[in-house]
Write a structure and sequence with these properties.
By secondary structure, the chain is an alpha/beta fold. Helix content is 45%, strand content 14%. It is built from 12 helices and 10 strands. The strands form 2 sheets. An 8-stranded parallel β-sheet has the order 8-7-6-3-2-1-10-9. A two-stranded antiparallel sheet has the order 4-5. The mean pLDDT is 98. It binds 1,3-dihydroxyacetonephosphate.
Length: 339
Protein backbone atom coordinates (compact mmCIF):
# COMPACT_ATOMS: atom_id res chain seq x y z
CA UNK A 1 0.00 0.00 0.00
CA UNK A 2 1.19 3.47 -0.87
CA UNK A 3 -0.30 6.20 1.31
CA UNK A 4 0.54 8.91 -1.25
CA UNK A 5 -1.37 7.08 -3.96
CA UNK A 6 -4.37 6.55 -1.71
CA UNK A 7 -4.34 10.22 -0.74
CA UNK A 8 -4.09 11.26 -4.42
CA UNK A 9 -7.10 9.11 -5.34
CA UNK A 10 -9.11 10.44 -2.38
CA UNK A 11 -8.31 14.05 -3.35
CA UNK A 12 -9.17 13.40 -7.01
CA UNK A 13 -12.58 12.04 -5.99
CA UNK A 14 -13.35 15.37 -4.30
CA UNK A 15 -11.74 17.58 -6.96
CA UNK A 16 -13.28 21.06 -7.21
CA UNK A 17 -16.77 21.02 -8.69
CA UNK A 18 -16.96 17.22 -8.71
CA UNK A 19 -18.59 14.43 -6.73
CA UNK A 20 -19.51 10.76 -6.91
CA UNK A 21 -22.45 8.90 -8.44
CA UNK A 22 -23.58 6.02 -6.21
CA UNK A 23 -24.84 3.37 -8.66
CA UNK A 24 -24.06 0.44 -6.37
CA UNK A 25 -27.59 -0.66 -5.56
CA UNK A 26 -27.63 -4.34 -4.66
CA UNK A 27 -29.91 -6.52 -6.78
CA UNK A 28 -32.64 -6.22 -4.12
CA UNK A 29 -32.43 -2.43 -4.01
CA UNK A 30 -32.29 -1.85 -7.79
CA UNK A 31 -35.26 -4.21 -8.12
CA UNK A 32 -37.25 -1.96 -5.76
CA UNK A 33 -36.23 1.10 -7.84
CA UNK A 34 -37.15 -0.57 -11.15
CA UNK A 35 -40.48 -1.70 -9.65
CA UNK A 36 -41.43 1.97 -9.25
CA UNK A 37 -41.35 2.36 -13.06
CA UNK A 38 -42.73 -1.13 -13.79
CA UNK A 39 -39.53 -2.39 -15.37
CA UNK A 40 -38.60 -6.05 -14.81
CA UNK A 41 -35.35 -6.42 -12.87
CA UNK A 42 -33.50 -8.68 -15.32
CA UNK A 43 -29.70 -8.63 -15.57
CA UNK A 44 -30.02 -7.04 -19.01
CA UNK A 45 -32.42 -4.30 -17.88
CA UNK A 46 -30.10 -3.50 -14.98
CA UNK A 47 -27.20 -3.41 -17.45
CA UNK A 48 -29.10 -1.17 -19.88
CA UNK A 49 -29.99 1.26 -17.10
CA UNK A 50 -26.40 1.47 -15.87
CA UNK A 51 -25.22 1.96 -19.46
CA UNK A 52 -27.60 4.92 -19.76
CA UNK A 53 -25.96 6.49 -16.71
CA UNK A 54 -22.34 5.70 -17.60
CA UNK A 55 -22.59 6.92 -21.21
CA UNK A 56 -24.33 10.21 -20.42
CA UNK A 57 -22.37 12.88 -22.32
CA UNK A 58 -20.50 15.63 -20.45
CA UNK A 59 -21.03 14.36 -16.91
CA UNK A 60 -17.30 13.81 -16.47
CA UNK A 61 -17.12 17.56 -15.78
CA UNK A 62 -19.02 16.96 -12.53
CA UNK A 63 -18.62 13.26 -11.73
CA UNK A 64 -15.23 12.07 -10.45
CA UNK A 65 -16.18 8.49 -9.62
CA UNK A 66 -18.96 5.94 -9.77
CA UNK A 67 -19.62 3.29 -7.13
CA UNK A 68 -20.54 -0.04 -8.73
CA UNK A 69 -22.07 -3.25 -7.43
CA UNK A 70 -20.50 -6.70 -7.86
CA UNK A 71 -22.77 -7.55 -10.80
CA UNK A 72 -22.25 -4.16 -12.49
CA UNK A 73 -18.44 -4.10 -12.29
CA UNK A 74 -18.44 -7.27 -14.43
CA UNK A 75 -20.95 -6.01 -17.04
CA UNK A 76 -20.34 -4.40 -20.43
CA UNK A 77 -21.86 -1.63 -22.52
CA UNK A 78 -23.60 -2.60 -25.79
CA UNK A 79 -20.32 -2.18 -27.69
CA UNK A 80 -18.62 -4.76 -25.46
CA UNK A 81 -16.61 -2.39 -23.23
CA UNK A 82 -16.46 -3.46 -19.58
CA UNK A 83 -18.03 -0.77 -17.40
CA UNK A 84 -14.87 -0.08 -15.35
CA UNK A 85 -12.91 0.48 -18.59
CA UNK A 86 -15.68 2.63 -20.07
CA UNK A 87 -15.69 4.87 -16.99
CA UNK A 88 -11.90 5.03 -16.72
CA UNK A 89 -11.75 5.99 -20.41
CA UNK A 90 -13.86 9.05 -19.57
CA UNK A 91 -11.66 10.01 -16.62
CA UNK A 92 -14.21 8.72 -14.09
CA UNK A 93 -12.87 6.41 -11.38
CA UNK A 94 -14.68 3.12 -10.81
CA UNK A 95 -15.36 2.09 -7.21
CA UNK A 96 -17.09 -0.88 -5.61
CA UNK A 97 -19.55 -1.54 -2.80
CA UNK A 98 -18.00 -4.32 -0.72
CA UNK A 99 -20.33 -4.82 2.22
CA UNK A 100 -22.89 -7.58 1.81
CA UNK A 101 -25.74 -5.72 3.49
CA UNK A 102 -27.11 -5.12 6.96
CA UNK A 103 -28.72 -7.80 9.16
CA UNK A 104 -30.43 -7.66 12.55
CA UNK A 105 -27.95 -7.25 15.39
CA UNK A 106 -28.61 -10.21 17.69
CA UNK A 107 -29.70 -9.16 21.17
CA UNK A 108 -30.38 -5.55 20.10
CA UNK A 109 -33.93 -5.29 18.73
CA UNK A 110 -34.27 -2.60 16.07
CA UNK A 111 -30.53 -2.34 15.38
CA UNK A 112 -28.54 -3.56 12.38
CA UNK A 113 -25.00 -4.74 11.79
CA UNK A 114 -23.35 -4.66 8.37
CA UNK A 115 -21.81 -7.92 7.15
CA UNK A 116 -19.10 -8.81 4.66
CA UNK A 117 -15.77 -8.96 6.53
CA UNK A 118 -15.19 -12.70 6.00
CA UNK A 119 -13.03 -13.21 2.93
CA UNK A 120 -12.97 -9.45 2.29
CA UNK A 121 -9.19 -9.18 1.75
CA UNK A 122 -9.43 -11.58 -1.19
CA UNK A 123 -12.43 -9.85 -2.73
CA UNK A 124 -10.70 -6.46 -2.45
CA UNK A 125 -7.66 -7.80 -4.33
CA UNK A 126 -9.92 -9.07 -7.10
CA UNK A 127 -11.80 -5.76 -7.38
CA UNK A 128 -8.50 -3.85 -7.51
CA UNK A 129 -7.35 -6.14 -10.33
CA UNK A 130 -10.51 -5.49 -12.36
CA UNK A 131 -10.15 -1.75 -12.11
CA UNK A 132 -11.66 -0.47 -8.84
CA UNK A 133 -9.79 2.40 -7.22
CA UNK A 134 -11.99 2.86 -4.17
CA UNK A 135 -14.47 0.92 -2.08
CA UNK A 136 -17.59 1.57 -0.02
CA UNK A 137 -19.11 0.04 3.13
CA UNK A 138 -22.39 1.28 4.58
CA UNK A 139 -23.30 1.02 8.25
CA UNK A 140 -26.92 1.69 9.18
CA UNK A 141 -27.90 3.44 12.41
CA UNK A 142 -31.58 3.68 13.27
CA UNK A 143 -32.99 6.31 15.61
CA UNK A 144 -35.94 5.05 17.67
CA UNK A 145 -37.04 4.40 21.24
CA UNK A 146 -33.89 3.18 23.02
CA UNK A 147 -31.95 3.14 19.70
CA UNK A 148 -29.16 3.33 18.87
CA UNK A 149 -27.41 1.75 21.85
CA UNK A 150 -23.71 2.41 22.55
CA UNK A 151 -23.04 -1.24 21.63
CA UNK A 152 -24.88 -0.93 18.31
CA UNK A 153 -22.79 2.12 17.45
CA UNK A 154 -19.55 0.45 18.58
CA UNK A 155 -20.17 -2.76 16.63
CA UNK A 156 -20.84 -0.86 13.41
CA UNK A 157 -17.89 1.48 13.92
CA UNK A 158 -15.63 -1.52 14.49
CA UNK A 159 -16.75 -3.19 11.25
CA UNK A 160 -16.28 0.07 9.32
CA UNK A 161 -12.73 0.41 10.62
CA UNK A 162 -11.85 -3.23 9.86
CA UNK A 163 -13.11 -2.70 6.30
CA UNK A 164 -11.23 0.59 5.97
CA UNK A 165 -7.92 -0.95 7.08
CA UNK A 166 -8.35 -3.90 4.70
CA UNK A 167 -9.20 -1.56 1.80
CA UNK A 168 -6.12 0.57 2.30
CA UNK A 169 -4.01 -2.59 2.51
CA UNK A 170 -5.44 -3.64 -0.89
CA UNK A 171 -4.69 -0.20 -2.39
CA UNK A 172 -8.31 0.97 -2.43
CA UNK A 173 -9.54 4.22 -0.87
CA UNK A 174 -12.25 3.32 1.65
CA UNK A 175 -15.39 5.38 1.63
CA UNK A 176 -16.56 5.09 5.22
CA UNK A 177 -20.35 5.39 5.32
CA UNK A 178 -22.09 5.56 8.68
CA UNK A 179 -25.68 6.38 7.72
CA UNK A 180 -28.00 7.69 10.41
CA UNK A 181 -31.41 7.01 8.88
CA UNK A 182 -34.01 9.77 8.37
CA UNK A 183 -36.80 7.33 9.28
CA UNK A 184 -38.73 8.30 12.41
CA UNK A 185 -40.30 11.32 14.07
CA UNK A 186 -37.17 12.45 15.95
CA UNK A 187 -36.10 16.09 16.07
CA UNK A 188 -33.01 17.52 14.37
CA UNK A 189 -31.45 17.89 17.83
CA UNK A 190 -31.75 14.14 18.42
CA UNK A 191 -30.25 13.44 14.99
CA UNK A 192 -27.37 15.78 15.87
CA UNK A 193 -26.72 13.98 19.19
CA UNK A 194 -26.75 10.55 17.53
CA UNK A 195 -24.57 11.67 14.60
CA UNK A 196 -22.06 13.16 17.04
CA UNK A 197 -21.84 9.91 19.02
CA UNK A 198 -21.53 7.82 15.85
CA UNK A 199 -18.79 9.94 14.26
CA UNK A 200 -16.81 10.09 17.54
CA UNK A 201 -16.86 6.32 17.74
CA UNK A 202 -16.05 5.84 14.04
CA UNK A 203 -12.96 8.06 14.21
CA UNK A 204 -11.82 6.36 17.42
CA UNK A 205 -12.01 2.98 15.72
CA UNK A 206 -10.30 4.24 12.54
CA UNK A 207 -7.45 5.44 14.74
CA UNK A 208 -7.27 2.13 16.65
CA UNK A 209 -7.12 0.27 13.33
CA UNK A 210 -4.26 2.48 12.06
CA UNK A 211 -6.24 3.78 9.11
CA UNK A 212 -4.55 6.70 7.33
CA UNK A 213 -7.11 9.48 7.37
CA UNK A 214 -5.51 11.19 4.34
CA UNK A 215 -6.52 8.15 2.31
CA UNK A 216 -10.21 7.86 3.18
CA UNK A 217 -13.41 9.71 2.37
CA UNK A 218 -16.27 9.97 4.87
CA UNK A 219 -19.80 9.44 3.54
CA UNK A 220 -22.14 10.65 6.27
CA UNK A 221 -25.78 11.55 6.39
CA UNK A 222 -26.70 15.18 6.98
CA UNK A 223 -28.11 16.27 10.33
CA UNK A 224 -31.84 16.43 9.55
CA UNK A 225 -35.24 16.24 11.23
CA UNK A 226 -36.74 12.74 11.15
CA UNK A 227 -38.96 12.20 8.11
CA UNK A 228 -42.10 12.14 10.27
CA UNK A 229 -41.11 14.91 12.67
CA UNK A 230 -43.81 17.61 12.62
CA UNK A 231 -41.15 20.34 12.97
CA UNK A 232 -39.04 20.12 9.79
CA UNK A 233 -35.75 22.02 9.97
CA UNK A 234 -35.08 24.39 7.07
CA UNK A 235 -32.03 24.43 4.79
CA UNK A 236 -30.03 26.90 6.90
CA UNK A 237 -30.72 25.01 10.11
CA UNK A 238 -29.59 21.75 8.51
CA UNK A 239 -26.38 23.37 7.25
CA UNK A 240 -25.65 24.87 10.68
CA UNK A 241 -26.34 21.65 12.61
CA UNK A 242 -24.40 19.46 10.19
CA UNK A 243 -21.32 21.68 10.13
CA UNK A 244 -21.36 22.10 13.92
CA UNK A 245 -21.42 18.33 14.35
CA UNK A 246 -18.61 17.77 11.83
CA UNK A 247 -16.33 20.40 13.36
CA UNK A 248 -16.52 18.47 16.65
CA UNK A 249 -15.75 15.08 15.15
CA UNK A 250 -14.02 14.98 11.74
CA UNK A 251 -10.25 15.58 11.72
CA UNK A 252 -8.89 18.01 9.14
CA UNK A 253 -6.67 15.21 7.77
CA UNK A 254 -9.75 13.73 6.07
CA UNK A 255 -9.64 15.16 2.52
CA UNK A 256 -13.34 15.04 1.83
CA UNK A 257 -16.84 14.44 3.02
CA UNK A 258 -19.19 13.02 0.38
CA UNK A 259 -22.79 13.08 1.54
CA UNK A 260 -25.36 10.38 0.88
CA UNK A 261 -28.85 11.67 0.05
CA UNK A 262 -30.74 9.16 2.19
CA UNK A 263 -34.23 9.77 0.82
CA UNK A 264 -34.14 13.58 0.59
CA UNK A 265 -35.63 14.94 -2.63
CA UNK A 266 -33.12 15.58 -5.40
CA UNK A 267 -33.48 19.36 -5.13
CA UNK A 268 -33.34 19.41 -1.32
CA UNK A 269 -30.11 17.37 -1.31
CA UNK A 270 -28.57 19.92 -3.70
CA UNK A 271 -29.80 22.88 -1.62
CA UNK A 272 -28.30 21.45 1.57
CA UNK A 273 -24.91 20.82 -0.02
CA UNK A 274 -24.99 24.29 -1.56
CA UNK A 275 -25.81 25.98 1.76
CA UNK A 276 -22.86 24.28 3.46
CA UNK A 277 -20.41 25.18 0.71
CA UNK A 278 -21.72 28.75 0.53
CA UNK A 279 -20.35 29.16 4.07
CA UNK A 280 -16.90 28.24 2.79
CA UNK A 281 -13.58 27.90 4.59
CA UNK A 282 -13.98 24.29 5.73
CA UNK A 283 -11.01 22.02 6.51
CA UNK A 284 -12.38 19.30 4.20
CA UNK A 285 -13.99 19.32 0.75
CA UNK A 286 -17.76 18.99 1.06
CA UNK A 287 -19.14 16.98 -1.83
CA UNK A 288 -21.76 14.43 -2.83
CA UNK A 289 -22.00 10.69 -3.34
CA UNK A 290 -25.70 10.61 -4.10
CA UNK A 291 -27.70 7.64 -5.26
CA UNK A 292 -31.39 8.55 -5.33
CA UNK A 293 -30.79 12.32 -5.49
CA UNK A 294 -28.89 11.91 -8.78
CA UNK A 295 -30.93 9.07 -10.23
CA UNK A 296 -34.54 9.67 -9.18
CA UNK A 297 -35.46 12.01 -12.07
CA UNK A 298 -33.44 9.86 -14.50
CA UNK A 299 -35.34 6.65 -13.72
CA UNK A 300 -38.62 8.52 -13.92
CA UNK A 301 -37.78 9.84 -17.42
CA UNK A 302 -36.39 6.53 -18.68
CA UNK A 303 -39.34 4.20 -17.94
CA UNK A 304 -37.35 1.31 -19.43
CA UNK A 305 -37.74 2.68 -23.01
CA UNK A 306 -34.73 2.95 -25.32
CA UNK A 307 -36.42 5.94 -26.98
CA UNK A 308 -36.33 7.81 -23.65
CA UNK A 309 -32.57 7.39 -23.10
CA UNK A 310 -31.55 10.85 -24.42
CA UNK A 311 -34.24 12.59 -22.31
CA UNK A 312 -33.28 10.59 -19.22
CA UNK A 313 -29.61 11.46 -19.77
CA UNK A 314 -30.56 15.17 -19.83
CA UNK A 315 -31.91 14.76 -16.28
CA UNK A 316 -28.68 13.12 -15.15
CA UNK A 317 -26.70 15.96 -16.73
CA UNK A 318 -28.88 18.48 -14.98
CA UNK A 319 -28.53 16.91 -11.51
CA UNK A 320 -24.78 16.53 -12.03
CA UNK A 321 -24.49 20.19 -13.11
CA UNK A 322 -26.60 21.46 -10.19
CA UNK A 323 -24.62 19.46 -7.63
CA UNK A 324 -21.38 20.52 -9.33
CA UNK A 325 -22.46 24.15 -8.76
CA UNK A 326 -23.40 23.30 -5.15
CA UNK A 327 -19.76 22.23 -4.64
CA UNK A 328 -18.92 25.97 -4.94
CA UNK A 329 -22.04 27.26 -3.15
CA UNK A 330 -23.13 28.63 -6.54
CA UNK A 331 -26.28 26.61 -7.14
CA UNK A 332 -29.40 28.67 -7.88
CA UNK A 333 -33.03 27.75 -8.36
CA UNK A 334 -33.11 28.94 -11.99
CA UNK A 335 -30.69 26.11 -12.85
CA UNK A 336 -33.61 23.70 -12.33
CA UNK A 337 -35.49 25.17 -15.28
CA UNK A 338 -32.76 24.32 -17.77
CA UNK A 339 -33.78 20.69 -18.55
P1 LIG B 1 -28.62 7.60 -1.46
O1 LIG B 1 -27.99 8.90 -1.90
O2 LIG B 1 -29.79 7.21 -2.27
O3 LIG B 1 -28.84 7.58 0.03
O4 LIG B 1 -27.56 6.47 -1.77
C1 LIG B 1 -26.24 6.65 -1.44
C2 LIG B 1 -25.64 5.37 -1.06
O5 LIG B 1 -24.65 4.97 -1.62
C3 LIG B 1 -26.27 4.60 0.03
O6 LIG B 1 -25.41 3.58 0.44
Amino acid sequence: MNTHELAAVARALVAKGKGILAADESTGTITRRLDTINVASTADNRRAYRELLFTTPEVEAYISGVILYDETIRQESSDGTLFPALLAGRGIMPGIKVDTGASDLAGFPGEKITEGLDGLAKRLDEYRAIGARFAKWRAVITIGPGCPTPYGIAANAHALARYAALSQQAGLVPIVEPEVLMDGDHTIERCAAVTLAVLRRVFNELHEHRVRLEGILLKPSMVLSGKDCPQQAGVDEVATATLACFRQTIPAAVPGIVFLSGGQSAVRATEHLNAMNARGGHPWELSFSYGRALQGPVLEAWQGQAANVPAAQKFFQQRARCNGAARYGKYAEHMEQAA
